[in-house]
Amino acid sequence: MSLNELMIMRHELVLVAAVLALLIIEIGMPEERKQKINVFAAIIAATVTIIGFLPADTGMLFGGMYSTDPLRMLMKNILNIGVFLIILQSVNWLRQDLYKDRSSEFYLLTFSSLIGVSYMISAGHFLMFYLGLELTTIPIAALASYEQFKSKSAEAGIKLILSSAFSSAILLFGISILYAANGDLYFESFQLSDSLINVLGFIFFFSGLAFKISVVPFHLWTADVYEGSPTNVTSYLSVISKGSSVFILTIVLFTLFRVIQPLWEDVLYATAILTMTIGNLFAIRQQNLKRFLAFSSIAQAGFIMLGIINGTSLGMTTVIYFVVIYVFSNLAAFGVLQTVGHASGKLTMDDYNGLYKTNPQLSLVMMLALFSLAGIPPLAGFFGKFFLFTAVAEKGYYTLLLIAVVNTVISLYYYLLVVKAMFINANENPIASFKSDYSMRISLVICVAGILITGFYSPVFEYIKYLCETF
Amino acid sequence: MSYVVLIIALPFAAFLINGLLNRKLPHRLAGWLATGAIGVATALAWFTAFTYFFQSTSFEKIIPFQVTWLRFTETLQIDMGILLDPISVMMLVVITTVSFMVFLYSLGYMHGEKGFVRYYAFLSLFSFSMLGLVVATNLFQLYMFWELVGVSSYLLIGYYYDKPEAVAAAKKAFIITRFADFGFLVGILLLSYYTDTFDFAAITNPNHSAFTTMTGSSFLGISVLTWALMLIFMGGAGKSAMFPLHIWLPDAMEGPTPVSALIHAATMVVAGVFLVARMFPVFSFHAPEALDAVAFIGAFTLLFAAIIACTQTDIKRILAFSTMSQIGYMMLALGVSGYGEHGLGFTASMFHLFTHAFFKALLFLGAGSIIHAIHSNDIREMGNLRRHQPVTHIVFLIACLAIAGIPPFAGFFSKDEILAATLNSSLVYFAIAAFTAGLTAFYMFRLYFLVFWNRETVYEHKPHESSFIMLVPMIVSAVGSAVAGFIPFGKFVSSDSQPLHIEMNQTVANLSIVVAATGILIAWAFYKNESPLPEKIASTLKGLYRIAQKKFYIDELYLFITKKIIFNLISKPIAWFDRQVIDAFMDFTATATNKVSAEIKGLQSGQLQHYAYIFLSGVVLIVLIMIFNYA
Predict the structure, then answer these.
(1) pTM value?
(2) Who's near B5: CB < 8 A, 6+ residues apart?
(3) Is A207–B615 a contact, with Cβ atoms under 8 angstroms apart?
(4) Could you give the CA distance from residue A463 to residue A2 in angstroms, rounded to a whole number?
(5) Helix (H, G, I), strand (E, B), or coil: what is residue A458?
(6) How far, in Å, CA of A45 to CA of A107, rounded?
(7) Does A306 map to a domain?
(8) Ordered alpha helix ranges (H), B58-115
(9) Considering Cα of A226, then A230, then A236, then A239, what sign does the dihedral take?
(10) Which residues on chain B are in Cβ contact (under 8 Å) with A167?
């Protein structure tokens, strides 16, 4: 295997190199200059993101265990951008005395998890896929309890690791049934026989993956873990973890399980309705904004599934396009949450009353993010949802479309609650005005630009469409 | 000729800079920046006109720039571009020149106002929108800029937003023109539904096959095409303040006076005329009834506004009614015009639009100069101003002579062509037009004598002549008003882009001079010195005078219809239905959603074993259902 061939695995290799570099810096750097590691991490994340965009060969490696193509590259690039933004948002938080001795831990674990994400997306074999999945989750479970001195954080870590172990078991069970029925685990040559046992295998496999996307009824861990984890870890879980699982789910449904499309359409149809509705109904009642965003992200997952149901390249395009917008919108919202929480320690909706008076810019960013999540034109979120609905309508599932539209209205209500709190509600002692740090501001500016540009600049959609059609 | 884009881009850039850096820019810089931008645009516009009219012999439609903006389907796409033809090039010159004058003038007039930068931002936005409107390559682009023009007009009328009258006037103007634009939009949709395009190249081609279908099918006894054009004309009538959609224009005078000069005299209000001219081939070939309507409404507004103007006492309102009346002339000329060789009316209308822009802008600038000096709009508080403002006096006199139609000033030539064109069509229209010419001369000179002659008035502060920066644009406009009439307009602008030879009709010319001179003489007799004569006549014709002074109670009629009839008979029942039925249903769903949300919160117990239990039950349930389904 020549070096050139190995470079097909560029995304993962760069990430491994990044992890090694961070380790060496961590060990080699004198104690008093440890602060610098934050800057290094941000630079490394930027470099990784940029390298990801350089043109490269695609193809298969290791006899089909690993495979990549332009569409998978794009998926990894999207997630790389997400991680870069999260790291920008973490810098200031990790500079506190509490964490400064072990801030490198945060970056190491984040990058490790990202390696898992990349391998999962590029998997060409069920085992490879499973390894990637585990590598994605375990570092994040460690990160969830990063603030060990808080019992909520410890609880989040335990809950995440236990429930993901549970879901992994079910997923592995599904894979073994599929192996038993078909005698093959390579994606390339995998052929579904028309045995009924495949239904069983598929549903177990699907449940394991749906757990990561927090599809109802596999979502119950979400709210507790999102609430307990540090905000940056929550954004990682809700954006990177979820986004990557959506990507791989789309890929396997469209390739391996193409023959049983009527079956998975039915499964998705039912779970999508449940996910949108339950997510929304719970979101209405939340006071804690992290919990609020947790349920909102469950509801968003339900919307994403609408695109998958379409089953054609158009459906795939809408899903990926929606995830891109979701990354920017959600990270903007979490960014504001993070910086406000860091400056004032406040997290509930009532605390946000009158935020516009004291921190107008942050309130505007938050408003744009929430409007985009709610799908209000002319923000990108509107176009994302619009295309998803088009995909459903094209399929002729008008009942599903109606339910989705009703759910959009419900979601509009609770997103507006937050906006109302910030802009209209009076507050005698609002959160004092403060200046957020530069890296946070850069990340918020990128997010807002993403929210505005992705919708208006049609080549984004056209490019994704082109890749999906040639996939 | 792609530099034409700059003509439009420069004011837009000025708008962006002034708008975004609102508080950070020093006043002087902001003002000169915007003025410089429009100045360069003006030079470019003149250069464009020069190359267009003198470097080529035939006046083809040129599209130097076009991009596809929105592409919905293969057939439905919306472009943004620049279309150059005689009327759009002429409009470019008019708009940039008048804008430049007004921008320059405002540097003096608005000096020291607290919203100075905002003022220039809005003014630049207006120029940008108006320029984009006239060069539109398709109806949709025209419509977009049309609305932008409406918005910037709204913003500028309400410039003194702490003054309740200004706010009310801004709202009134916006609502009335929006109401008219609704008709416009329906007309556009109707037209493009049949023709499958927004493009002027196709829509204004009288041989387009869709027009036969549209004239063939009828609705309420009128052909669909006529409907479409009438609706489009409704939009034009709204912007051009034609009866009965005129009520916003007098109130719009609450805006700063230079704004009135630019928007409510020279440019925006003639957008309706431009629109009819743009669609003229279709009007002329396929919908003569719609053209008749244009002529009728034009003639009616012409006389109607002139009568009101004779009784008003607010200097700007007199000018506003005179604007309406003059636009009535333009509409009337278009309405009676034929096509090609019989297109005298078309050329006359465009010519009058051109000359009117100069002398009406000048009148407003002069009025601004007066108001600036004595801080009042009321002509009863003025008098003998010629002693205090000699320059203003002279330029104002030139403008009055021009609008009254005294040779050799510009208005004489264009008005004369209009009179000749109406004579070819109908004696009634000719009589109205000729009579109003006399009326125009009368009310303009009533204004002139009352302000500059008459009695010596005691002023609180001694009035002073305006500053140099305000006088320059006035003098330039005065030169324009004096000489613009000598342009052989028919050579350049005609309905079919072929040079039109126009001979002066001697009888008509003589008649119009006599009529105008009579008007001036009566005004001289009444108002040159203080005299009891006007009072006496007003009290003899008490009833009539009152009605005219109250603007024929049209505003009151509007209020009666909206407040008494629409609010009570239509809005109230709808409001009841909305509150009792629709809202109640919505409230019910909201309450129900909340209830369900409260009921199911137990699902989220926080117990991990409980979560696993639900997880597994979910899996098993799905498996059972699916196996049952597919077995």
Answers:
(1) 0.68
(2) B64, B65, B82
(3) yes
(4) 31
(5) coil
(6) 9
(7) yes
(8) 86-109
(9) positive
(10) 615
ipTM of the complex in this document: 0.87
Q: Is A282 within 8 Å of B606 when comparing Cβ atoms?
A: no
CB atoms within 10 A of CB A4: 9
| Smallest Cα distance from B493 to chain A, Å | 40
Average pLDDT over residues B253-270: 86
Helices (H), A102-240: 103-121, 126-144, 151-182, 197-213, 221-228, 231-235
- The DSSP code for B83 is E
Lowest average pLDDT, out of A90-99, A426-435, B481-490, B598-607, goes to: B598-607
**Angle in degrees, CA B402, B404, B406, rounded to 5:** 65
Residues in B closer than 8 angstroms to A270, CB to CB, are 622, 625
- Whether B440 and B432 have beta carbons less than 8 Å apart is answered as no
Q: Are B444 and B404 in contact (CB under 8 A)?
A: yes
Q: Do B608 and A203 touch (CB under 8 A)?
A: no
Q: Is residue B462 scored above 80 in pLDDT?
A: no
From the list A199, A224, A413, which residue is nearest B626 (CB)? A199
Chain B residue with minimum CA distance to A285: B597
* pLDDT in the model for residue A444: 94
**Tokens standing for residue A358:** 């004291």
Residue B73, pLDDT > 70, answer no
Amino acid at B235: G
Strands A59-61, B77-84: pairing is unpaired
CA–CA distances in Å: residue B115 to residues B16, B28, B308: 16, 12, 34
Q: Alpha-carbon distance B239 to B174, whole Å?
A: 10
Provide the number of structural domains found in chain A.
Answer: 1
Q: Is residue A280 part of a domain?
A: yes
- Tell me whether residue A150 is in a domain: no
Among positive and negative, which fits the CA dihedral B63, B67, B69, B70? positive
Structural domain that includes position A347: 257-471
pLDDT under 70: residue ranges of chain A: 1
Ramachandran class of A59: left when φ > 0, alpha when ψ lies in -120 to 50, beta otherwise: left
Q: How far apart are CA B501 and CA B498, in angstroms?
A: 10
Q: What is the pLDDT of residues B340-385, one digit of tens each?
A: 778 888 888 999 999 999 989 999 999 988 888 888 888 878 877 8
Residues of A in contact with B622 (CB under 8 A): 203, 207, 267, 270-271
Are A135 and A101 spatial neighbours (Cβ–Cβ below 8 Å)?
Answer: no
Q: What are phi and psi of A124, to 5 degrees?
A: -120, 10
Q: How far apart are CA A272 and CA A278, in angstroms?
A: 10
Half-sphere exposure of B289 (CA within 13 A, CB side): 12
Query: CB under 8 Å to A359, separation ≥6 — which residues?
Result: A340, A431, A433, A434
Annotate B439-460 with DSSP letters as a single string: HHHHHHHHHHHHHHSSSPPPPS
| B600, B617, B623 member nearest A203 (Cβ) | B623
Residues B109/B372, Cβ–Cβ less than 8 Å: yes
Alpha helices in B217-376 (DSSP H): 224-239, 248-251, 257-261, 271-278, 280-286, 288-309, 315-336, 344-374
Name the more confident of B540 and A260: A260
Under DSSP, is residue A39 helix (H, G, I), strand (E, B) or coil?
helix
Q: Which of A163, A199, A204 sits opposite B611 (nearest CB)?
A: A163
Q: Which residues pair with B81 in a beta bridge?
A: B66
Question: What is the widest separation between alpha-carbon atoms in chain B?
Answer: 107
In angstroms, the CA A171 to CA A201 distance is 9
Residue B534 has pLDDT above 80, yes or no: no
Other Cβ atoms less than 10 A from the Cβ of B583: the count is: 11
| Nearest-CA distance B452 → chain A (Å) | 54
Q: How many CB contacts within 8 angstroms connect chain A with chain B?
A: 76
| Contact (CB, 8 A) for B240 and B269 | yes
Q: Is residue A245 part of a domain?
A: no
